Amino acid sequence: MKATFTVRRALLASALFALTASASAQSVKLTLAHGNPPDNPRHIAAVKFADTVKAKTNGRVEIQVAHSAQLGDDAAMVTALRSGTLDFSANSQGAIAAVVPEFSGLGMPFLFSDVQKAWQVMDGPIGKELAEKSSAKGMVLLGLWDNGIRQMSNSKRAIKSPADLKGLKMRTPPDAVTMDIMKAMGADAQQIKFSELYVALQQGVVDGQENPLTNISSAKLYEVQKYISLTGHKYESTPFLMSKRSWDRMSAADQKIVSEAATDATQLQRRLNKEVDDKLVAELKTKGVQVDTVERTAFMEASKSVYTKWASSPIGDFVARVQQAAR
Asked: Rounded to whole angstroms, how far apart are CA atoms 248 and 246?
């Protein structure tokens, strides 16, 4: 009888161990959403990130990537991240700045001479501070992807000086700094979601817009814009974020895998974005678009009021630190 009891207890312990092992190995399905089309570097890097995590967890953690604002616009995705109903998002700087205002500091006019300088600043103390601010708002900053140097386009006339912007209805993202820049240069700034931008330009709701060349190309905005001006008026990052609620549910081992995969994806996305941007001027000219260079001194002078305004804002000290780092 005693031997039988011992055997039963051993079998029960074995079954409990198998059940525990099975539960620990249970697959996890997560979602990553962003607003760009499938051929954009943002999507390519997102898919690479998902594939890396799946491979390193032997298929246990599977991340589905939803592109082209399938799960809502950037603002909606930020809300979902904070509530835990969305796990990851490669989001816009403006939408994140609505929750973490310090992100606006990266978008001051003519702050960075090139993207490499922006990356250097973002990978230093400034980036760490942004990560801390994001965590306090329920988001884990996994990386600062690149959204490039922004240029202007429109359907009316070549923009070669700030005076050419007078009276033009220019779309901006939901980003306060971009709105301020357009207004300072005399444009009629109007916020429109990126997912609605092509139709808005096509129907004449707005005359023009501003975006990195990569976004102008992948969204085919050149089809409804005759003129592109290489103003280079501001830089924007693409914060790659994870819901802190989703992060906290992960084991330390899985958090390490996600962090490492995110670092690799960040480097990939930055490299791809720069490669695409570097060759687009020539490509866009072949599509019948007039591409003009500008004398930036006049644009820089016209945008000085933006610095004055933000220097006295609640994040004025942070803006000053970003400027100092950029130098």
From this structure: 6
Residue 16 has phi, psi (to 5 degrees) of -65, -40
Query: pLDDT per residue over 110-140, tens digit each?
Result: 999 899 999 999 999 999 999 999 999 999 9
**Is the distance from CB of 234 to CB of 108 less than 8 angstroms?**
yes
Task: Check whether 55 has a pLDDT greater than 90.
Answer: yes
pLDDT at 113: 87
> pLDDT tens for residues 63-89?
999 999 999 999 999 999 999 999 999
In the chain, the DSSP E strands lie at 28-34, 61-66, 88-90, 139-154, 169-172, 188-191, 208-211, 227-243, 290-293
Domain boundaries, the chain: 2-326
Q: 231 phi and psi, to 5 degrees? A: -80, -30
b vs e for 4-32, b when ≥16 Cβ sit within 10 Å of the residue's Cβ? eeeeeeeeeeeeeeeeeeeeeeeeeebbb
Cα end-to-end span (Å), the chain: 82
Report the C-alpha gap between 109 and 170 in whole angstroms.
16
Q: How far is CA 229 from the centre of its chain?
A: 23
Q: What is the CATH number of domain 2-326?
A: 3.40.190.170
Distance CA 101, CA 93 (A): 10
Beta pairing, strands 139-154 & 208-211: antiparallel
Q: Mind spelling out the 3-state secondary structure of 27-71?
A: CEEEEEEECCCCCCHHHHHHHHHHHHHHHHCCCCEEEEEECCCCC
